[in-house]
């Protein structure tokens, strides 16, 4: 799901000011986070351990465009819609092609917009945005996202309310780059609680064929495996939840520092992407970096119907995910 922008696709270079963007800081005990108003993005998350700040996510300079859409909310659909076209409730829709090189509509409608501040306390911040009628999208919605810190780390709560008069399709994702302190990615291990992967057409990054089991394959991370030289841009599902109804994907550094991204049952998919300079997609000042991206549905879900959410008029959906230091 990561925004695989080639140079010619980028509409502005990394490091340019994000006009009007505001930054909100939140704290709880050893945890500190910063959330921005543009795309309601998580700019950074860290935890103080023995007086040292341990980075749990990748970051970017405040007031600038996040590289590779890091930290941003992707809604009312995540990932890609083939040809920007979908058919819903008897009506054909043609969205703007925001990934013209691959002829896709990508990452929804709110990642480059300013969200409205609703509440800001020391340990939490809530923002909201109205998705209005626009090209190919006749379904008004109100979205909210609350970033909150407690003794377990960060929890992020999303809601989506259909404010229109007819049923509406919906999906949501997050563009979260995780980090285990300062360890280079190739020195870290990854553990994934997933059962299947969705093969993608490498040219258009759209689903190609049915899901396949990961057990015993190169995509099997059921036990911690080294990320040295590993590249992925892969949607996974059949997510295995723990006894607390949360699934955990874990990045671990050689010194034992570990970052876990957890999701509740509403997020039935997770996409794993490796930013890699060898593929022209370096994360600034880090080179190789790892995105673990919670999604409610896979790419092109509005056409396949796989895990597509349908909101009735006035109905509200809610989902939650978070990050903790282990």
Explained architecture:
InterPro entries: Aldose_1/G6P_1-epimerase, Gal_mutarotase_sf_dom, GH-type_carb-bd, YihR-like. This is Aldose 1-epimerase family protein. It comes from Antrihabitans spumae. Residues 1-21 are annotated as: Disordered. The protein is built from 1 helix and 29 strands. By secondary structure, the protein is mainly β. The strands form 8 sheets. It has a 9-stranded antiparallel β-sheet with strand order 10-11-12-13-29-25-24-17-22, with no helix packed on it. Strands 16-27-26-23-18-21 form a 6-stranded antiparallel β-sheet, with no helix packed on it. The longest helix is centred in the last third of the chain and has 4 residues, at 301-304. The protein is globular. It starts with 22 loop residues before the first strand and ends with a strand. Mean pLDDT is 94; it is low at 1-17.
Question: What does this entry show, briefly?
Answer:
The chain has about 325 residues and is mainly beta. It contains 1 helix and 29 strands.
- Mean of pLDDT: 94
- Beta-strand level of the residues, as a percent range? 35-45%
Major beta sheet, strand line-up: 10-11-12-13-29-25-24-17-22
Number of strands: 29
Low-confidence stretches: 1-17
The helix fraction, in percent, is under 10%
Structural class: mainly beta
What would the principal axes of the Cα set say about the shape?
globular
What order do the SSEs take from the amino end to the carboxyl end, as H and E?
EEEEEEEEEEEEEEEEEEEEEEEEEEEHEE
Q: What is the CA-atom radius of gyration, in angstroms?
A: 18 Å
User: How many helices in DSSP terms?
Assistant: 1
* Head-to-tail CA distance between termini: 26 Å
Query: How does the major sheet shape up?
Result: 9 strands, antiparallel
């Amino acid at each position: 799901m990561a925004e695989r922008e080639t140079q010619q696709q980028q509409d502005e270079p990394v490091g340019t000011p994000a006009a009007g963007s505001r930054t909100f800081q939140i704290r709880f005990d050893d945890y500190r986070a910063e959330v921005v108003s543009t795309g309601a993005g998580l700019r950074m998350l860290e935890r103080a351990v023995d007086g040292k700040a341990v980075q749990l996510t990748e970051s970017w300079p405040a007031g600038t465009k996040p590289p590779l859409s890091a930290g941003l909310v992707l809604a009312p659909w995540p990932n890609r819609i083939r040809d920007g076209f979908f058919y819903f409730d008897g009506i054909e829709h043609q969205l703007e092609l925001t990934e013209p090189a691959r002829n896709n509509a990508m990452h929804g409608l709110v990642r480059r917009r300013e969200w409205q501040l609703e509440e800001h306390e020391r340990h939490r911040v809530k923002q909201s945005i109205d998705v209005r009628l626009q090209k190919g999208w006749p379904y008004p919605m109100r979205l909210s996202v609350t970033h909150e810190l407690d003794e377990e780390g960060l929890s992020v709560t999303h809601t989506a309310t259909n404010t229109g008069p007819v049923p509406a399709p919906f999906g949501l994702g997050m563009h979260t780059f995780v980090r285990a302190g300062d360890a280079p990615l190739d020195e870290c291990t990854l553990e994934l609680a997933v059962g299947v992967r969705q093969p993608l057409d490498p040219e258009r990054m759209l689903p190609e064929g049915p899901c396949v089991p990961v057990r015993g394959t190169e995509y099997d991370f059921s036990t911690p495996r080294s990320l040295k030289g590993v590249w992925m841009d892969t949607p996974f599902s059949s997510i295995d939840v723990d006894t607390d109804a949360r699934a955990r994907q874990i990045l671990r550094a050689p010194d034992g520092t570990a970052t876990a991204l957890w999701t509740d049952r509403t997020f039935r998919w997770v996409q794993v992407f490796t930013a890699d300079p060898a593929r022209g997609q370096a994360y600034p000042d880090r080179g190789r970096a790892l995105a673990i991206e919670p999604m409610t549905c896979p790419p092109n879900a509005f056409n396949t119907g796989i895990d597509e959410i349908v909101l009735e008029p006035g109905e509200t959906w809610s989902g939650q995910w978070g990050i903790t230091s282990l």
